[in-house]
Amino acid sequence: MELRKDPITRSWVLVGHREFSPVAPNECPLCPTTIGPPPILRMPAEGPWGVCVRPHANPLYHIEGDLGRQAEGIYDMMLPVGAHEWIAETPNHEGTLATLSDDQIALVLEAYSLRILDLKQDRRFKYVTAFRNRGLPAGEELTHPHSEITASAFVPRRILYELRAARSWFEEKERCVFCDIVRQEERRGTRLVDTQGDYLALCPYASRVPFEIWLMSRRHNHLFEQQRQKSNRRDLAILLGRTLRRLGRITSNYHMVLHTAPNTIERSGDMQPFWKTIADDYHWHIEILPILEKVSRSYSIKEVYFNQLLPEQAAERLRQTDPGQ
Predict the structure, then answer these.
(1) Cα angle value 290/296/297 (rounded, 5°)
(2) What strand order describes the sheet that includes 82-88?
(3) Which helix (H) or strand (E) holds 301?
(4) What is the CATH class of 174-320?
């Protein structure tokens, strides 16, 4: 496999054959009884684990080697150097993230932070994030409740869009655009779904798909992995659990992605213009994009989305939905 860069959209694309390591029938690589590579992280460190991080059996990125970046005429390519990990969210093979206790969800979020912090020590990795694909339509590979961590030698296009927009907004207004969104949505309330402590869940003004939800913090912070003083991560866990249970009454399939600031250890190269104000203009958030099986047209042209449900209507329905326990 190799990474090729589109010179027009400036997005990197993985191409080539992905080698797969076979998994024995009826054997889950994330269950505590499975014998496999030693875990990267287990929480707690001693005794039975609650959350366990393991290398992905069939990774998109490989941590060994050099980038091997080179030109092919006008094009750029490099090797898929990075990291790809599984986060087993519970030793229990059954259930979902939504059905875990608040403390267990908080432990999962803490695992996100610890792995992002660790991987960002590697100067080769420009972007590290956590994501979750729930359900077969979302590309879920294992039924064991799990998230994934990836570290890549490039910043994904969607994040670059956000960085440019946030920097432009800050240059003009000397304010964070995400903080402005939080204040306006909370003041108006029509797209607000739920709140807990310093955190809120909302349906974005220009939602790309029905029931799209963002989880955001009222307190400005560009790095999810570096928690601000007096911030209570358990409140985020409570809100995430309630949000996913609400969403579960509508669909069990979704993509969930953490958007945090890129790795700023290496401050050279094409990311240099963003580093000057990134601590002030960027704001981490979690995006949840549901997949509705009965809806086939989520967009008409790629990046021009078609959403037949107004976010105000989606937020109202989600507010009225009992999240349960």
Answers:
(1) 90
(2) 41-43, 51-55, 82-88, 146-152, 127-134, 254-259, 285-290, 213-217, 199-202, 192-196
(3) strand 299-301
(4) alpha beta
Enumerate residue ranges in the chain where pLDDT < 50.
296, 298-301
User: What is the pTM assigned to this prediction?
Assistant: 0.91
Q: Decide: 134 and 96 in contact? Cβ < 8 Å.
A: yes
Bridge partners of residue 162, in order along the sequence: none
Q: CA angle at residue 245 from 197 to 209, to 5 degrees?
A: 95
pLDDT of residue 25: 60
Owner of token pair 């997005």: 11
Kindly tell me the burial class for residue 93, based on how many C-beta atoms sit within 10 Å of its own C-beta (0-12, 13-18, 19 or more). middle
Q: Compute the distance between CA of residue 123 and CA of residue 267 in angstroms, rounded to an integer.
A: 10
For the chain, residues classed under CATH 3.30.428.10 are 2-152, 174-320
2-152, which class in CATH? alpha beta
Q: How much is the pLDDT for 322? A: 87
Residue 311 confidence (pLDDT): 83
Give the list of residues 6+ apart from residue 53 with CB closer than 8 angstroms, or none.
Answer: 39, 40, 41, 42, 85, 86, 87, 88, 111, 115, 149
